[in-house]
UniProtKB/TrEMBL annotation:
The organism's taxonomic lineage, starting at the top: Bacteria, Bacillati, Actinomycetota, Actinomycetes, Propionibacteriales
Keyword Oxidoreductase in annotation: yes
InterPro entries: CE1759_FMN_reduct, Flavoprotein-like_sf, FMN_Rdtase-like_dom, NAD(P)H-dep_FMN_reductase
Comp. bias intervals (Polar residues): 182-200
Source organism (scientific name): Kribbella pratensis
UniProt domain NADPH-dependent FMN reductase-like: residue ranges: 6-155
Protein name according to UniProt: FMN reductase
Length: 200
């Protein structure tokens, strides 16, 4: 069985964090999509906070430690990436940016990436388009069309509303792995019957 390696980079600062929770759900959805195609997968989870000191030293000295080098090689050697950052000042976190600053600017060239972010309010959802997408375009990666933003209101009783975005983005990442054009889901293909709308 052809196994795909998916590196998941999450930059949450707390344990547990909403960024890690979103990362786990995205990884599970990608694994399910691959499994549905008869393809195995290996998920390599990277918590950036665990490498904060090594990242700082790398920026100061220009050389990664042995453990950080191993992590960076995991990212550059993966078939695809899932990246999740908490939102700070309407952008990705400094820790998240620091991780990608120490990568060679060609290291992610041509690599499919699923972009995701978390935040306290829906007002910051454009962080995906105005911060993360330009960063990965600069790194010559291939972000999939659908990014996933999860606000505080997307958890708990409202978690079901997040699921379609996760499924859509996961499908696009797997399609990108196979150089396919993802099929857009038309919400009007299966409209809710008018009688059901009247009764709701």
């Amino acid at each position: 069985m052809n196994e795909k390696v998916i590196a998941v980079v999450t930059a949450g600062l707390t344990t547990p964090s909403s960024s890690r929770l979103l990362a786990d759900q995205l990884a599970e959805a990608v694994r399910d999509e691959l499994s549905g195609r008869g393809i195995g997968s290996r998920i390599e989870l990277i918590e950036v906070r665990d490498h904060a000191h090594d990242l700082t030293n790398n920026l100061l000295t220009g050389f990664p430690s042995a453990s950080l080098r191993e992590v960076l090689e995991t990212v550059t050697g993966a078939d695809a990436l899932i990246v999740v950052s908490p939102t700070f000042s309407a952008s990705y976190s400094g820790l998240f940016k620091m991780f990608f600053d120490v990568l060679d600017d060609q290291a992610l060239a041509g690599k499919p990436v699923l972009l995701a972010a978390t935040g306290g309010t829906e007002r910051h959802s454009l962080v995906l388009e105005f911060a993360l997408r330009p960063l990965f375009a600069y790194l010559k990666a291939l972000p999939v069309p659908t990014g996933v933003y999860a606000a505080s209101t997307d958890w708990g009783p409202n978690a079901a509303g997040l699921r379609p975005r996760i499924t859509q983005a996961a499908g696009e990442l797997v399609a990108a792995l196979h150089h396919e054009t993802p099929t857009a889901t038309d919400p009007f293909n299966n409209p809710t019957p008018f009688e059901d709308l009247l009764n709701s």
